[in-house]
Design goal:
By secondary structure, the protein is an alpha+beta fold. α6 packs across α7 and α12 packs across α13. It starts with 6 loop residues before the first strand and ends with a helix. The protein binds guanosine-5'-diphosphate (GDP) and magnesium ion.
Length: about 675
């Protein structure tokens, strides 16, 4: 199985409830991974194996699993669809080579489908679409395809046609082979009949095939030649053409079926093998030299120096499983790796190929593989693992800032200790989780991406790690920045254990255009007022002060801090003194520059029947929304795009439901920060 062309690293992405988990369970069953099918609604799905997930019937953590189909190794990652777990989707997309996008055949493209589609665009991931749930009343393959074209702007290559509809859905016409695949009866769908296209569909199938050939001709010379010459195009030529079109990222193959009724999943597996890229067919990952920042490319070659990206940690009480995607070189069991971020070398003990909650030990990991390792203590999500002699930093996935927080108060000092350990572990695991001590109340504040995310984090702490604590209700995670430029200094002078300690630091601050950035630079006019040996301590003091809010409750972002001077005294200056002095200088300078309170802003996509437009827009205006656009869509539906402060979005699901008698739907994602209106800033912040 070492032949790279026989590996597929894929993810399944979708709007929540489109059927990702149900599709995955079928895939596990048909590829022989599982001997029975676990159903989501029975709380028994194999990929949703955390207790939390089985209770809620949704997927929270991306679980990786390896399976085999037609002599190909498919590494599959099941990702959650809920906006709160966007980090899981981002980090999966970063390490995947291709994706299956699942749609609900009744709704077609939904709000969250657009979000994941945009994310997949960002990571240039080639895609296959699977229109699921064609057994449901009101489902329509044609309408779903139309919504994929219109709303996602995708060039579709429709490879199938449904046979029967809704309760009568029996299978699909394979437009390439010009055969019908029919699943009879209500069995588990392992076997199906390949028959001639039913007479009543023959003409339509011929038209659809012509359309497919015409569309593929734009991407593939062999198909174009036949098409223009009016010659028949055989299935293999067409397949190769679809493959190159999908790999180019400019078109998507579209298939259909119903996972719950066990129809149409095997052809989807075929399509994964036929149309999605192997690790050798995707561009080499971008990386840089950790010292010089020079770009480095690493070939997908087992003999090249080793490089892998850590995309997920799963910590339980027994230690961490470190999930990695290998890009180049070979790493053996017990081998050494170097982590350029942590500047540390360490040894992997065992390497496992993961099968949902099961694991299989393997001797080595090669390019293109996705495995989990045990024994790494310093790796965090987003880290590169490489060789010390040939260091490289691979570009990690990007994660948004947290938007909601919650206070946690441990009940005993033993609980407090355990909490600290757990928080450290959870930060390494989840890049959209953050925590800090509130300087005013002494409480521990945890932050995340949404109410559900915080709820899950809370349960991990309280249940999985058994910390006993009081927990507050979720609040918006505000930020601060500076209103203008400013300059000030801070110093530290104190006798500690009979020894005087001293340091002083002078800072200049200025606001940055990009609020998500934070920079520290040095400009002490060539003087060595602060010896080089203390620079790291000064920078740590500034970064800590910014994170903890510089004397107020919320982290400072969007600022460039320049160290412009300082004073060191021989014998009296220490790292500690400089760290504290820098923190004080930062706080003074933020006050001098003037504080500006920021609130997180969401991009909200709403689809509502036209008759409720007025109410929905009126309600949005009361929520301080900025309407970016309204678009009329088929079926008397309007698509509204707006930005709304997160603080105004609590309880929105229920409100939208009651305004529209349950017929409007929305999706949202974080889209940065905006200044709070002064009257509100005074209330929530200072
Ligand atoms: P996910 O959130 O995308 O993982 O969606 P799930 O796989 O959890 O499915 C959501 C719900 O839709 C569950 O109740 C499934 O049983 C149901 N479902 C999934 N696929 C189908 C299908 O093909 N037909 C019908 N009627 N229901 C389905
Ligand atoms: Mg799921």
């Amino acid at each position: 199985m070492s032949d790279l062309s026989r590996i597929r690293n894929i993810g399944i992405i979708a709007h929540i409830d489109a059927g990702k988990t149900t599709v995955t369970e079928r895939i596990l069953y048909y590829t022989g991974k599982e001997h029975r099918i676990g159903e989501v609604h029975e709380g028994a799905a194999k990929m949703d194996w955390m207790a939390e997930e089985q209770e809620r019937g949704i997927t929270i953590t991306a679980a990786a699993t390896t399976l085999f189909w037609r002599d190909h190794q498919i590494n599959l990652i099941d990702t959650p669809g809920h906006v709160d777990f966007t980090a899981e989707v981002e980090r999966s997309l970063r390490v995947l080579d291709g994706a299956v996008v699942v749609f609900d055949g009744v709704h077609g493209v939904e709000a969250q489908s657009e979000t994941v589609w945009r994310q997949a665009d960002r990571y240039h991931v080639p895609r296959i679409c699977f229109v699921n749930k064609l057994d449901r009343a009101g489902a329509s393959f044609d309408r779903s395809v139309l919504s994929i074209q219109r709303r996602l702007g995708a060039q579709t290559l429709v490879c199938q046609m449904p046979v029967g509809a809704e309760r009568e859905f029996q299978g699909v016409v394979d437009l390439l082979e010009e055969k019908a695949l029919l699943w009879s009866g209500e069995g588990l769908g392992e076997s199906f009949d390949i028959v001639d296209i039913p007479a009543d569909l023959a003409e339509e199938a011929e038209l659809h095939r012509l359309e497919l050939v015409g569309a593929v001709a734009d991407f593939d010379d062999a198909v174009a030649e036949a098409y223009l010459g009016d010659e028949p195009v055989d299935a293999d030529t067409l397949r190769a053409g679809i493959r190159s079109a999908v790999l180019s990222g400019k078109a998507v193959a579209v298939l259909c079926g119903t996972a719950l009724r066990n129809k149409g999943v095997q052809p989807l597996l075929d399509a994964v093998v036929d149309y999605l890229p192997s690790p050798a067919e995707v561009p080499a990952p971008r990386g840089e030299d950790p010292e010089t920042g020079d770009p480095i490319e690493r070939p997908c070659d087992p003999d090249a120096p080793f490089a892998a990206l850590v995309f997920k940690l799963f910590g339980d009480r027994h230690g961490d499983l470190v999930y990695m995607r290998a890009y180049s070189g070979t790493l053996k069991e017990n081998g050494h790796v170097y982590n350029p971020r942590a500047k540390r070398g360490e040894r992997v003990q065992q390497i496992y190929r993961m099968h949902a909650s099961q694991r299989e030990r393997v001797k080595e990991v090669r390019p293109g593989d996705i495995v989990a390792a045990v024994g790494l203590k310093f790796a965090s999500t987003g880290d590169t693992l490489c060789l010390k002699a040939e260091p490289v930093l691979l570009e990690p996935a990007r994660f948004p800032e947290t938007v909601l927080s919650m206070a946690i108060e441990p009940k005993s000092s033993a609980d407090r200790e355990r909490l600290e350990e757990v928080l450290g572990r959870m930060t390494r695991d989840d890049p959209t989780f953050d925590w800090r001590e509130d300087p005013e109340t002494g409480q521990t504040i945890i932050s995340g991406m949404g109410e559900l995310h915080l709820e899950v984090l809370k349960n991990r702490m309280l249940r999985d790690f058994q910390v006993d604590a009081n927990v507050g209700s979720p609040r918006v995670s505000y930020r601060q920045t500076v209103a203008a430029k400013g300059r000030a200094k801070g110093s530290f002078e104190k006798e500690i254990a009979g020894k005087p300690q001293y340091a002083a630091v002078q800072l200049a601050l200025e606001p940055l255009d990009n609020l998500e950035d934070f920079e520290i630079t040095w400009d002490t006019g060539g003087s060595l007022a602060i010896p080089q040996g203390f620079h790291a301590a000064v920078e740590a003091g500034i970064a800590d002060a910014a994170r903890s809010g510089a004397g107020q409750s919320y982290p400072v972002i969007g600022v460039k801090a320049t160290v412009v001077g300082g004073v060191a005294r021989a014998d009296e200056s220490t790292e500690l003194a400089f760290e504290v002095a820098a923190g004080r200088a930062f706080e003074e300078t933020v006050d001098a520059a003037g504080r500006l309170a920021l609130e997180p802003l969401m991009r909200v996509d709403i689809r509502t029947p036209n008759e409720y437009m007025g109410e929905v827009l009126g309600d949005l205006n009361r929520r301080r929304a900025t309407i970016l656009g309204t678009d009329a869509e088929a079926g008397d539906v309007t698509h509204i795009v707006a930005t709304v402060p997160l603080a105004e979005m609590f309880g929105y699901v229920g409100m939208l439901r009651s305004l529209s008698q349950g017929r409007a739907a929305h999706g949202m994602e974080p889209t940065g920060y905006q200044a709070l209106p002064p009257a509100m800033a005074a209330k929530v912040l200072f």
